[in-house]
Structures are given as C-alpha cells and as structure tokens.
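wait is this the right file?? whatever heres the structure
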C-alpha cells in the first residue's frame, strides 16, 4: 500500500506499508512494516524529467547523432 504519512515534525512523507499477521502460540500477532520512499520517488521523478528533456532534444534534431563511448 502506498500512501502519505505525516511525521511528528509535520513533514509529509511518501511511504509503502506492508501489513501482515500470524499466530504465535495461538495468539494473533499483527505487524506492519513502513518504508519511507520519499527520496526514491524524488529520484525517479528527476530521472523521468531528464529522459523527457533528452527525448525531446533528440526527436527535434534534424541532423545525425553519434554517441562515442570510451571503454
């Protein structure tokens, strides 16, 4: 489950929540893992923006493009 979470400092963070439950000695145990994915989502957005800019540049150029990589 992806959602937003408000911290004690009133920051809004993107999180993934993984709830689960199981029995130990006939008692129900419920636990939840919460991962802060805010930085990952910001990085993914930056990559998508960069790819969109590069794609727009390449698609608008009327000349040839050569990529040279030194190994």
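ok assuming it is, sequence goes like this
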């Amino acid at each position: 489950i992806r959602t937003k979470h408000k911290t004690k400092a009133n920051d809004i963070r993107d999180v993934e929540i993984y709830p689960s439950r199981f029995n130990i000695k006939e008692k129900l145990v419920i636990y939840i893992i919460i991962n802060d994915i805010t930085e990952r989502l910001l990085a993914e957005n930056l990559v998508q923006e960069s790819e969109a800019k590069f794609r727009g540049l390449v698609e608008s150029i009327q000349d040839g493009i050569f990529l040279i990589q030194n190994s």
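The chain has a mean pLDDT of 93. so i think its the right one actually
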